[in-house]
Amino acid sequence: MRMVDVILKKRDGGELSREEINFFVRGYTSGAIPDYQASALAMAIYFQNMSAREMSDLTMSMVRSGETVDLSEIRGIKVDKHSTGGVGDTTTLVLAPLVASLDIPVAKMSGRGLGHTGGTIDKLESIDGFHVEITKDKFIQLVNDDRIAIMSQTGNLTPADKKLYSLRDVTGTVESIPLIASSIMSKKIAAGADAIVLDVKTGAGAFMKTDKDAEKLAFAMVKIGNSVGRNTMAVISDMSQPLGFAVGNALEVKEAIDTLRGEGPEDLMELVLTLGSEMVVLAKKADTLEEARGKLIESIKVGRALEKFKAFIENQGGDPSIVDNPKKLPRAKYKIDLTALKSGVVSNIVADEIGISAMLLGAGRATKEDKIDPSVGLVLHKKIGDRVEKGEKFLTIHSNCRDVEEIKTRIYKNITIGSRAEKPVLIHKVIMK
Ligand code: URA
Ligand code: CA
Fold first, then answer.
1. pLDDT tens readout for residues 270-291
2. What is the pLDDT of residue 111?
3. How confident is the model at residue 365, as a pLDDT?
4. What does the pLDDT read at residue 51?
5. Active-site residue 375, yes or no?
6. pLDDT tens-digit profile of 76-119?
7. What pLDDT was estimated at residue 115?
8. Whole-angstrom Cα distance, residue 102 to residue 293?
9. Alpha carbon of 88 to ligand 2 centroid (Å)
10. Any residues with CB less than 8 A from the CB of 162 and at least 6 apart, and which?
11. pTM to 2 decimals?
């Protein structure tokens, strides 16, 4: 087989066979196929698309390019949740202990954040002592004993995806549905999930800026998962504005604690219950979504979810007393309130710009090498559709640097006060197979 023929076939709109896809993935991973041929194929896929069968074959080929995680020693159905990334997305911090409190195993491998979106591990590491560098044996033992553990990604999972993703980044081929879908699904499958709940974000703060694209991506991923024997479903959720109120690591841990107490922001709670109910049903701990939702709400009400969060923190070396005393979390030196310049209704909050503002304060990384400041970030007091009076504070900057003029300007530019606005719908669509 010659790589040039594979490229020609896709360029001219043909459907690649499983053998051709395997030939490419193996050859590219080993170095036998050079970057320039892989770029040409990625560009051909970008223009010609892939069939559902090609996407599944590409996904499984990338899974086989490296190690896979064997979670078979953990009892129960391992349901993983994946978000395509958003601003102030505190969901996993709440969802993981909440679902675990219903005896569902949460064995999560997580990454760190890059750009305007934050990573779950960065958020958890704002808790003094908490660490994710645990051995595979310890990880499995913790999930079996306490139903929850998070470890940083180790081992050589999906090397083909790593190489291809870096190449796509510099060849204008990131925005291709089959390439994104196979990239995400290969990582989830290699990490050992039995079932997968996808949270595909749509809007300014999301990777997919329109509902149409978000739906296409969700459909592609759901199809891939189910065709390779992993129960998969997707929720398309709003990311036109940040989720909840807090954007920033320790600030989001505090927000997660509030939510686990039943006192969190409405949108965050609703998204947690929507995704959580699907996870509970997939894990076969409830027959219907209504029953699942009831169980989740009960666990919050009686404090079981919060207790699970404490145990989780303690198991991984963190100080669990922050749950009862969040003032012990890292706190920024300065709190700077931003007040409304006129009265009206908040009509727009550009999520990605708010994410970038938090990143510039030190809450995120512009490059992989940047160090994160866990204490800094932003807290919204108003969301789209809320009334605000002239002079009333609508946002607080938490900073360790006194001069935040540039960030203030950016925020004022990206939060609009108009005469009227509806609250955005949070759940746009649910996609089952
Ligand atoms: N995230 C991924 O993991 N892969 C992509 O291709 C795009 C976003
Ligand atoms: Ca948040």
1. 999 999 999 999 999 999 999 9
2. 67
3. 85
4. 98
5. no
6. 999 999 999 899 999 999 999 999 999 999 999 876 766 666 78
7. 67
8. 11
9. 4
10. none
11. 0.95
The pLDDT value recorded for residue 113 is 66
> Where are the extended beta strands (E) located within 38-138?
79-83, 106-110
Contact present, 292 and 277 (Cβ < 8 Å): yes
Residues in the chain where the model's pLDDT stays below 50:
none
Q: What residues contact 30, with CB distance under 8 A and at least 6 apart?
A: none
Q: Confirm whether 410 is a catalytic residue.
A: no
Report pLDDT for 37: 98
Q: Which atom of ligand 1 is nearest to the CA of 168?
A: 6
Q: Kindly state the tokens that stand for 125.
A: 């590491």
Q: How far is the CA of 242 from the centre of ligand 2 (A)?
A: 7
Mean pLDDT, the chain, integer: 95
**Residue 46: partners with Cβ closer than 8 Å, 6 or more residues away:** 172, 173, 175, 176, 179
Cβ neighbours of residue 34 closer than 8 Å, sequence gap 6 or more = none
Positive or negative: CA dihedral 412, 371, 365, 377: negative
Q: Is 82 a catalytic residue?
A: yes
Tokens linked to 28: 């590219």
**DSSP summary character for residue 184:** H
Joined together, the tokens standing for residue 72 give 């078979």
Cα(400) to ligand 2 centroid in Å equals: 20
Alpha carbon of 68 to those of 56, 158, 193, 427: distances in Å? 17, 8, 10, 33
- Which ligand 1 atom is the nearest neighbour of the CA of 183? 4
The token pair at 321 is 């007393």
How many Cα atoms sit within 13 Å of 357 on the Cβ side? 32
SS3 of residue 118 by DSSP = coil
Active-site residue, from 187, 308, 310, 383: 187
CA separation for the pair 350, 411 (Å, rounded): 9
What residues contact 43, with CB distance under 8 A and at least 6 apart?
171, 172, 173
187 as an active site residue: the answer is yes
d(CA 361, CA 370): 12
